[in-house]
Protein: Response regulator transcription factor
Amino acid sequence: MTIRLLIADDQELIRTGLRLFLQTQPDLQVVGEAADGREALAQAAALRPDVVLMDIRMPRMDGVEATSRLTASGASSRVLILTTYDLDEYVFGALRAGASGFLLKDASRDRLLEAIRVVHAGEALLSPSVTRRLIQDYATRTEPLRPPTRLLAALTPRERETLLLVARGLSNPEIAAHLVVTEATVKSHIGSVFAKLQLRDRAQAVVFAYENGVVHPGGPG
Structure:
């Protein structure tokens, strides 16, 4: 299966470098480029890429806004934020906007390839450092959040436990070991959680869990 890519970055040299490198991979195809957020939205609508490599700081419309509008449109394209800036406002803004991953531009080529394939597969690329910072961010809240009882009532006890483990940044193999089940069972639980809570991927699951008080930083959830 070929993964169709759209590169959105305001620097032509970066777009060209990424395109030349990515096209050396037999399973990747760069179908388009965009120099700003508005162009990225237009290109995504016309080309329907599987994954959009989205820069943050771009003219006319930044990557966070473009990501928000793209995911709100119902497009199937997944967004991998690729940026120079490792700042909280960008990390959290991108995740809340619906991005499926966040990667710095100084990452290795192998890490970039892995990120693209992971995001395309429906997983989320959340590094442990990003997950820790997300936890710390919600730990600073002064008012406790009330979980959305109606939504959570639809989850089985095992599905809720799975959501808590996803929110803590555990991988599928780690969740399987914790619950003493197979990875296939974990994938089934996660798929059910996503469907019932109307979530796209792990990134949205993590944000949902902390924003709604499903899991509490430093506690068992």
